[in-house]
């Protein structure tokens, strides 16, 4: 069929958005009725004089607005009133702005212009002074000796993580390090314990490597020692994977006493520890890793990414000496060796103190953003650290996380629910995670937080409370 959307088009908007909104107006006027099949992309494109790609994007936008439903092999249809997405259709408002979505959904450090300048200056310096092996070496697999020596010194001095250069492996970011550590001691079908809410990358890794992942009760600090002890006794896990500092998504951080308790439990049960410590530089005062308490039975992973630049995929994995012969072949199989140029930048910054200066600036920027979030969301329950990337926001009244996420998207704000971080199928917490670093301009962050606060200050629309 051919539909005439020309009377409903607004030329002042991006074409794809104008078409999606024209569909909305045609539906509201009654010209397009539920159950109507929309014309193929090419036919509509020719009719209104746009590209096929523009129509494809417009249909996708209309589906996000709840106006239509794409059915594989059948086409795109106006949502029927008895469709199970009726509530989505009825609650769909038109997007508030044509500007890019305000992104509060991704874990990302604040990247001010000074960080970019640091990187450019480092590349200029290395153009004249980089170690010659940086561009030609393909061995040793674990990383170039001078880079491992510098890393080992820093891990000892800054983090209190014992070990020699031979115990350190350079990895392409923290996620790569976690994968190498787990695959070194965990086999297909083995059981691994972690926090009940944990980084979604670990959940994806369990599916990729085929090990079982079971969640353990957490509180405001992180994993609960008594619950961990009971789970170790009951399930006899092969390993425990923990985030000791600023757990994603809650921000929970284990204090020194809790770390002592956990180390004692793992040592008593003879369980391997894989410690995710990638947020450690965001804490003003260093916290000794759990791994430092049981180094012969623990893998420690950290990186520079969260405190500097996302593209600096410089990860550091400390491996028990007894396990190096398992870990190094896995490094070779997955990437041969970590990218030497990234570590030459990291080596330069560790040597001249740039890492500490950037980390300090990151903490100051995040503290400013946390204070901003506290002012705007003061009437709503929040959990966060003073220098954390995230706010773990409680929802008031009858709000549900998915409802807020959908309405926030219509208001031009992207947020994250608890669902991606849930280890097991259970009722999701009525919370959302707000990430404060991805928007470089604090004014856009403030605008996004205010839009969320405005939504939360009202009850959700009635149709959003329909169970379907």
From TrEMBL:
This is PLP-dependent aminotransferase family protein. Pfam families: Aminotran_1_2 (PF00155), GntR (PF00392). Residues 13-81 form the HTH gntR-type domain. CDD domains: AAT_like, WHTH_GntR. SMART domains: HTH_GNTR. Keywords: Aminotransferase, DNA-binding, Pyridoxal phosphate, Transcription, Transcription regulation, Transferase. In the C-terminal section; belongs to the class-I pyridoxal-phosphate-dependent aminotransferase family. One of its GO terms (molecular function) is transaminase activity. Transmembrane segments: none annotated.
């Amino acid at each position: 069929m051919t539909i005439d959307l020309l009377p409903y088009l607004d030329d002042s908007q991006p074409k794809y958005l104008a078409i999606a909104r024209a569909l909305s107006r045609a539906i509201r006027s009654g010209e397009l009725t539920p159950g109507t099949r929309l014309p193929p992309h090419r036919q509509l494109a020719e009719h209104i004089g746009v590209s096929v790609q523009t129509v494809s994007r417009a249909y996708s936008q209309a589906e996000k607005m709840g106006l239509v439903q794409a059915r594989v092999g059948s086409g795109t249809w106006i949502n029927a009133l008895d469709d199970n997405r009726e509530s989505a259709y009825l609650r769909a408002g038109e997007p508030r702005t044509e500007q890019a979505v305000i992104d509060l959904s991704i874990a990302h450090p604040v990247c001010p212009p000074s960080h970019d300048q640091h990187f450019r200056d480092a590349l200029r310096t290395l153009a004249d002074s980089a170690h010659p092996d940086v561009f030609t070496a393909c061995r040793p697999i674990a990383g170039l000796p001078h880079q491992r020596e510098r890393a080992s010194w820093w891990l000892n001095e800054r983090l209190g993580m014992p070990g020699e250069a031979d115990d350190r492996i350079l990895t392409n970011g923290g996620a790569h390090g976690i994968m190498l550590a787990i695959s070194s001691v965990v086999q297909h079908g083995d059981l691994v314990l972690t926090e009940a809410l944990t980084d979604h990358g670990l959940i994806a890794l369990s599916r990729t490597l085929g090990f079982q992942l079971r969640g353990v009760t957490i509180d405001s600090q992180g994993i609960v020692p008594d619950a961990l002890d009971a789970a170790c006794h009951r399930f006899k896990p092969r390993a425990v994977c923990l985030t000791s500092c600023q757990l994603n998504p809650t921000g929970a951080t284990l204090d020194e006493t809790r770390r002592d308790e956990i180390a004692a439990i793992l040592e008593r049960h003879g369980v391997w520890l894989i410690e995710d410590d990638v947020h450690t530089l965001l804490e003003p005062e260093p916290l000794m890793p759990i791994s430092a308490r049981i180094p012969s039975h623990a893998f420690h992973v950290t990186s520079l990414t969260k405190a500097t630049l996302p593209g600096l995929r410089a990860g550091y994995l400390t491996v028990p000496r007894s396990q190096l012969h398992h870990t190094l072949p896995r490094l070779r199989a997955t990437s041969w060796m970590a990218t030497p140029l990234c570590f030459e930048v990291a080596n330069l910054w560790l040597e001249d103190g740039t890492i500490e200066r950037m980390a300090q600036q990151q903490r100051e920027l995040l503290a400013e953003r946390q204070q901003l979030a506290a002012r705007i969301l003061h009437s709503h329950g929040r959990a966060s650290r003073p220098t954390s990337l995230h706010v773990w926001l409680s929802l008031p009244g009858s709000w549900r996380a998915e409802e807020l996420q959908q309405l926030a998207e219509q208001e031009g704000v992207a947020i994250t629910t608890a669902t991606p971080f849930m280890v097991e199928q259970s009722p999701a917490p009525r919370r959302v995670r707000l990430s404060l670093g991805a928007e470089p301009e604090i004014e856009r962050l403030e605008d996004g937080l205010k839009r969320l606060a405005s939504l939360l200050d009202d009850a959700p629309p009635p149709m959003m409370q329909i169970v379907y």
